[in-house]
């Protein structure tokens, strides 16, 4: 498995990771296209999701190029690919946390004004910090061939950089660790708030606790549970290889671990598409009708009655409503 310091990337690993890159490319594109085509989806939470999808789209494309090429030495295209993937990957971490912060302030703190006022700050941090760090790293010659030590064919921090661990932290790992800590806390607090609100509604207004309402809360609860779990499940393999690198363990070159790392790093766009497009009823129905893939979906779209007004949590999974957190009140 080991060729000097180089981790061998087998053809089977390339095929699997390229496939997940393709899924993320399609998934991120779907999120962006549905936002462009259907104007009623252009709420603030969905807009933030689109910015995240742009980062995931760039990640999928740059990772796919790196996995296809499997760089074996420093080159101009290696540096360019490494710079793009470094920027996009770090930006994805920031936007993922930004969405959680927005939902927390909007839902738990019940302050739409404060939440909306943070959007500009989210832009400055989520685009600005990765851009500054990436440009600095490239200028100092830190981005380049890394022998797939903590990658799967693509380029990242140069393997011969004396301070490469520091730059690995600054160009990705530090923000990854931050997301690991922040996301579970914020989504647990949001879930707790929703449960308290749902309990109050069920106790004092039993008429609201009908099946559609319960179904809505169940879907929202499921998504709030899955968002941090899926993020950690996808990203943890990269973290494991990073820790093994620090420990100088050859286990980091294990083919199964390398494959899981490749799948995890390139699947975020696909996972977001499943969560916020395919598992969001109204958007799924529109897609079915638009693509003429399901006549039943088209019939349901034409004959289903208007959904009742519900709490502003539907971006998390209202199967019968708008599928969005409305911010136009």
Automatic annotation (TrEMBL):
Residue runs in coiled coils: none
GO biological process assignments: adenylate cyclase-activating G protein-coupled receptor signaling pathway; cell surface receptor signaling pathway
Chief place where the protein resides: membrane
UniProt keyword annotations, A-Z: Membrane, Transmembrane, Transmembrane helix
Residue ranges of domain G-protein coupled receptors family 1 profile in the record: 27-190
Tagged with keyword Transmembrane: yes
Domain G-protein coupled receptors family 2 profile as annotated: residue spans: 13-170
Membrane-traversing stretches: 15-36, 48-71, 83-106, 118-145, 165-190, 224-247
Keyword Transmembrane helix: yes
Gene Ontology cellular component terms for the protein in this record: plasma membrane
PANTHER family attached to this UniProt entry: G PROTEIN-COUPLED RECEPTOR 157-RELATED, G-PROTEIN COUPLED RECEPTOR 157
UniProt protein name: G protein-coupled receptor 157
Naturally occurring in which organism (per UniProt): Takifugu rubripes (Japanese pufferfish)
Lineage summary: Eukaryota, Metazoa, Chordata, Craniata, Vertebrata
Annotated gene: gpr157
């Amino acid at each position: 498995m080991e060729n000097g310091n180089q981790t061998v990337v087998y053809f089977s690993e390339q095929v699997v990771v390229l496939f997940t890159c393709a899924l993320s490319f399609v998934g991120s594109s779907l999120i962006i296209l549905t936002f462009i085509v259907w104007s009623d989806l252009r709420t603030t939470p969905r807009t933030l999701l689109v910015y995240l999808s742009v980062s995931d789209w760039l990640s999928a494309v740059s990772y796919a190029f790196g996995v296809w090429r499997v760089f074996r030495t420093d080159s101009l295209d290696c540096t360019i690919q490494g710079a793009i993937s470094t920027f996009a990957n770090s930006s994805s971490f920031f936007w993922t946390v930004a969405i959680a912060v927005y939902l927390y302030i909007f839902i738990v703190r019940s302050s739409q004004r404060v939440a909306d006022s943070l959007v500009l700050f989210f832009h400055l941090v989520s685009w600005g910090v990765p851009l500054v760090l990436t440009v600095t790293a490239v200028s100092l010659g830190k981005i380049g061939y890394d022998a797939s030590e903590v990658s799967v064919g693509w380029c990242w921090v140069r393997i011969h950089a004396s301070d490469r661990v520091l730059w690995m932290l600054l160009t990705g790992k530090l923000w990854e660790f931050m997301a690991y800590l922040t996301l579970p806390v914020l989504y647990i607090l949001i879930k707790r708030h929703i449960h308290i609100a749902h309990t109050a509604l069920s106790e004092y207004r039993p008429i609201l606790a009908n099946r559609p309402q319960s179904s809505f809360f169940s879907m929202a609860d499921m998504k709030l549970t899955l968002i941090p779990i899926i993020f950690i499940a996808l990203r943890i393999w990269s973290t494991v290889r990073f820790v093994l690198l620090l420990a100088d363990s050859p286990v980091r070159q294990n083919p199964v671990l390398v494959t899981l790392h490749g799948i995890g790093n390139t699947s975020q766009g696909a996972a977001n598409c499943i969560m916020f497009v395919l598992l969001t009823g109204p958007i799924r129905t529109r897609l079915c009708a638009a693509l003429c893939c399901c006549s039943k979906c088209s019939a349901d779209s034409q004959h289903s009655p208007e959904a009742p007004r519900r709490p502003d949590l539907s971006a998390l999974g209202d199967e019968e409503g708008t599928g969005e957190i409305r911010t136009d009140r």
